[in-house]
Amino acid sequence: MANDQINVPSLVLILVLSGLIVRYLFFSSPAGTQPQAGAVGRDSLAALRQREAAVERIQQMFPLVDRRTVLWDLQRNGGNMTATTERILAGRMETVCRAPHAYVPNMANIVPWLYSLR
How far is CA 15 from CA 4, 20, 23, 39, in A? Predict the structure, then answer.
């Protein structure tokens, strides 16, 4: 009992092991969440469908606003419906956020079965 001291290498070893254990338990991703090869395409398709649903909701609330302009604004602000709705209500949609003439939404990604019928 006279020699109750912890030497420095033992302390360093304990700190490193506890750090690795904490990292493994709290900061590792589950095994099933690794993206697969085709998952990236499905995620982008899901994002396009979600944006299309947001455009439909906004068009139901504001039928006089051009669909292309709503799509452009949603793309600009990352799909934030609240920001788009606020721009429409403030009257800033047509003047500030006019979709450029070169912007054409790619509808083939949203409804692929429709374009496969051709």
Answer: 19, 9, 12, 38
Dist. CA 72–CA 55, nearest whole Å? 10
* Residues of the chain falling short of pLDDT 70: 1-3, 29-42, 94-118
Q: Nearest Cα to 47, choosing from 110, 112, 113? A: 110
Number of H helices, E strands in the chain: 7, 0
User: Rounded CA gap, 103 and 92, in Å?
Assistant: 19
d(CA 80, CA 3): 65
Global pTM exceeds 0.85: no
Please give the helix or strand (H or E) that residue 82 lies within, else none: helix 81-90
User: 71: buried, middle or exposed (CB in 10 Å: 19+, 13-18, 0-12)?
Assistant: buried
User: How far is Cα 27 from Cα 34, in angstroms, rounded to an integer?
Assistant: 14
